[in-house]
C-alpha cells in the first residue's frame, strides 16, 4: 500500500510507523515537500508519521482516528462497503432541508441511531438531511465546529462505516444528505497540522487566530488538502451536497479563489458521476456574487443561507431588537416583505450593527429563488443564545404556525432545524467536551463573561462542559404525541405536502413574488402565481384586503378561515396563517 504525506517542515526524514513497525519514507522528486513509501497494510491497521526526531503523529489525511485526534490513524478501505441503494435524483429547486445534529438527535447520539429515525423525516416530506460537522474533535460531545481532521468521521458517532450506513439508509428512503464542512479554521485542541507544513498563516487573522493558508507561500498544497477533503465526502461517502461554514472568514486574496476552485471541482465530479452535487454557503457578506455562476463572474456556489430573512422573521415574531436585530426591528413587517421579494435586507443600506453600509442588490430578474435558503431557526440562532432557547420557549403555537407558513411556502428553499416541526420544548444549548482542562475552563469563563455583558447572571448561563447541558439538548420525541406539538407537526406535514403539490410554490421567479403588509396591524400577505399566503402576527383578528375573483379556495389554514367575501376581505384570526388559491 502506498503511504504519502506532505511534510515540508521535515528537515531530514519522515518515518512511517505501521502496526508498531517503522518504515522510512523517501522524498518525492516530483512533488516538493512530499514523502512517500509502500508497506503491506489492510483495513483497520494503525499508523502514524514521525518527522525527524519528533513524536508520532496521525496522518493529516487520516480517514479514521479510532482513538481521537491525538491517537494513531487507521487504514480505511472504502471498497469494503457494499452499497445497497442508488442515489436519488433530487433538485435543489424543490428541496426541503432539515438541519440535524447527530449528537442530540437521539439519546444515543450516533449515526446509526439517527439513521433509524430517518423514516420520520421522509414521512414528513423532507428531501435532504443537512448534517452538522462530523469531523473528529477531542471528547465525545460537541457542536462539531472544532473539528481537527477534515478527512475523517468522529469515532463516537460511529466512524466512517456508520456514515456510509447513514447515507445508504437515507438514499433508500429517497432522502439526500448534505454535510456541513469547515474550511475556515480548525479546533484549538488536537490540531497537529502545523507540525507538517504551513497550513496556517499569520498574513491574515480570523476570530479563531491565524488564518487557514489559502494565499501565502505553500497555499497550493493547503488548498488541495481542503479541496480533496470536500470531494472525498461526495465521492467516498456518496454525500449529495456540502454546506460551507462561514465562507466570509476564508481569507483569500488570490485571483482564482478557493471557492471558485471548489465549485468547479464539484461540478466536474458531478458530471463524471452523473449525480447532482451542490454547495451551500454560509456567508454574511450580502453579496449575490457568491451564488452567481462562474461563467457570469461569480463564485459558482449553488446556494447560500440567508440570515437576513431569518433576522426579519425573528424580529417580526419576537420583537427583539438587540445587536444585529436592531435595523430589522425598526419596521419588522417591512423588513420581512423586503427579504421575501429582494432576498437581502442590507443590499447596500446602512447597517448600524456594522457601523457602515453593507451588501448589494440581488438581480431578481436573473437570479432564481432557489439560490437562497430561508429558515426561522438554525443551530446558530438557537445555540448562540444564552440558554439555547428555541422560538417555542416564548411564542404561541399560532405564531410558530405563522413562521412555518412563511418558511415552507416562501420563495427560498426552506430549511428546518431538528425538532422545529413539532415546536420542540427542549432547548439546544452550546455544549463542549474539551479534554484539555485549561481550554475547558477558558471556554466556560468566556461564555459567562460574554452574556454577563448583556445582563445575564453567571449562574444562569449553562456550563458548556457539564454533561447535563448536552443531555438537556437531546430531542424529546414523546412531545410529538401531545398537543400543541402534535398539531404543529401535522401543520408542517401539510405545508410541505402543499409545497410539493403546487408548482407555484417552487417557482424560481423572484420578480414574480408580490407582497402587501400592514406594519401596525401586523399582517402580511404574499402571492406566488395563483397561491396567496397570509399571516396575522397580531393579537387581534385582522381584515386583510385580498380582493376576490369568486374562485378563492382555502388550501391550508391554522384556524378555521373562510375565503374572502364579495368585499375582498380575508378575515384572519389572531396569530394565524392561511394558504389559498384563486386559480
TrEMBL record:
It catalyses: hydrolysis of (1->4)-alpha-D-glucosidic linkage in 4-alpha-D-[(1->4)-alpha-D-glucanosyl]n trehalose to yield trehalose and (1->4)-alpha-D-glucan. Belongs to the glycosyl hydrolase 13 family. InterPro entries: DUF3459, GH, GH13_cat_dom, Ig-like_fold, Ig_E-set, Trehalose_TreZ, Trehalose_TreZ_E-set_sf. Residues 460-479 are annotated as: Disordered. It is found in: Cytoplasm. Pfam families: Alpha-amylase, DUF3459. It comes from the Bacteria. Residues 468-479 have a biased composition (Basic and acidic residues). Its EC number is 3.2.1.141. The gene is treZ. One of its GO terms (molecular function) is 4-alpha-D-(1->4)-alpha-D-glucanotrehalose trehalohydrolase activity. Transmembrane segments: none annotated. This is Malto-oligosyltrehalose trehalohydrolase. Its main location: cytoplasm. Keywords: Carbohydrate metabolism, Cytoplasm, Glycosidase, Hydrolase.
Amino acid at each position: 500500500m502506498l503511504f504519502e504525506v506532505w511534510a515540508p517542515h521535515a528537515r531530514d526524514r519522515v518515518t512511517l510507523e505501521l502496526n508498531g513497525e517503522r518504515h522510512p519514507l523517501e522524498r518525492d522528486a516530483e512533488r516538493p515537500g512530499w514523502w512517500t513509501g509502500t508497506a503491506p497494510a489492510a483495513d483497520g491497521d494503525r499508523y502514524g508519521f514521525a518527522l525527524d526526531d519528533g513524536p508520532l503523529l496521525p496522518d493529516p489525511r487520516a480517514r479514521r482516528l479510532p482513538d481521537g485526534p491525538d491517537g494513531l490513524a487507521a487504514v480505511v478501505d472504502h471498497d469494503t462497503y457494499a452499497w445497497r441503494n442508488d442515489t436519488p435524483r433530487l433538485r435543489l429547486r424543490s428541496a426541503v432541508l432539515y438541519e440535524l445534529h447527530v449528537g442530540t438527535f437521539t439519546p444515543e447520539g450516533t449515526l446509526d441511531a439517527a439513521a433509524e429515525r430517518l423514516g420520520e423525516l421522509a414521512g414528513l416530506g423532507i428531501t435532504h438531511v443537512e448534517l452538522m460537522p462530523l469531523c473528529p474533535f477531542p471528547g465525545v460531545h460537541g457542536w462539531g465546529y472544532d473539528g481537527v481532521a477534515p478527512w475523517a468521521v468522529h469515532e463516537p458517532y460511529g466512524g466512517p462505516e456508520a456514515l456510509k450506513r447513514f447515507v445508504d439508509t437515507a438514499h433508500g428512503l429517497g432522502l439526500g444528505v448534505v454535510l456541513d464542512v469547515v474550511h475556515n479554521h480548525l479546533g484549538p485542541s488536537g490540531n497537529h497540522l502545523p507540525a507538517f507544513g504551513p497550513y496556517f498563516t499569520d498574513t491574515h487573522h480570523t476570530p479563531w487566530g491565524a488564518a487557514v493558508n489559502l494565499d501565502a507561500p505553500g497555499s497550493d498544497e493547503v488548498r488541495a488538502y481542503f479541496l480533496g477533503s470536500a470531494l472525498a465526502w461526495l465521492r467516498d461517502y456518496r454525500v449529495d451536497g456540502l454546506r460551507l461554514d462561514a465562507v466570509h472568514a476564508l481569507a483569500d486574496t488570490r485571483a482564482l479563489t478557493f471557492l471558485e476552485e471548489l465549485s468547479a471541482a464539484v461540478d466536474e465530479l458531478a458530471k463524471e458521476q452523473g449525480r447532482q452535487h451542490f454547495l451551500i454557503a454560509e456567508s454574511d457578506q450580502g453579496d449575490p456574487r457568491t451564488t452567481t455562476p462562474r461563467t457570469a463572474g461569480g463564485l459558482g456556489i449553488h446556494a447560500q443561507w440567508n440570515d437576513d430573512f431569518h433576522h426579519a422573521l425573528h424580529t417580526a415574531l419576537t420583537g427583539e431588537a438587540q445587536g444585529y436585530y436592531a435595523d430589522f426591528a425598526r419596521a419588522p413587517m417591512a423588513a420581512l416583505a423586503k427579504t421575501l421579494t429582494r432576498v437581502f435586507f442590507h443590499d447596500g443600506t446602512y447597517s448600524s450593527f456594522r457601523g457602515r453600509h453593507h451588501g448589494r442588490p440581488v438581480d431578481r430578474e436573473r437570479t432564481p429563488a432557489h439560490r437562497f435558503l430561508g429558515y426561522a431557526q438554525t443551530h446558530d440562532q438557537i445555540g448562540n443564545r444564552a440558554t439555547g432557547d428555541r422560538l417555542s420557549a416564548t411564542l404561541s403555537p399560532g405564531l410558530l404556525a405563522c413562521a412555518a407558513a412563511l418558511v415552507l411556502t416562501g420563495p427560498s428553499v426552506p430549511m428546518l432545524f431538528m425538532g422545529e416541526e413539532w415546536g420542540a420544548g427542549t432547548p439546544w444549548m452550546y455544549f463542549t467536551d474539551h479534554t484539555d482542562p485549561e481550554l475547558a475552563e477558558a471556554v466556560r469563563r468566556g461564555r459567562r463573561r460574554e452574556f454577563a455583558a448583556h445582563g445575564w447572571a453567571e449562574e444562569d448561563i449553562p456550563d458548556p462542559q457539564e454533561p447535563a447541558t448536552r443531555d438537556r439538548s437531546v430531542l424529546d420525541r414523546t412531545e410529538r404525541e401531545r398537543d400543541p406539538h402534535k398539531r404543529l407537526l401535522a401543520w408542517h406535514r401539510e405545508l410541505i405536502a402543499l409545497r410539493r403539490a403546487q408548482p407555484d410554490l417552487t417557482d424560481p421567479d423572484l420578480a414574480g413574488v408580490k407582497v402587501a403588509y400592514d406594519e401596525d396591524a401586523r399582517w402580511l400577505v404574499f402571492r406566488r402565481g395563483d397561491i396567496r399566503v397570509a399571516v396575522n402576527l397580531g393579537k387581534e383578528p385582522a381584515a386583510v384586503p385580498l380582493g376576490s375573483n369568486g374562485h378563492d379556495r382555502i388550501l391550508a389554514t391554522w384556524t378555521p378561515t373562510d375565503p374572502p367575501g364579495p368585499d375582498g376581505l380575508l378575515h384572519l384570526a389572531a396569530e394565524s396563517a392561511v394558504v389559498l388559491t384563486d386559480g
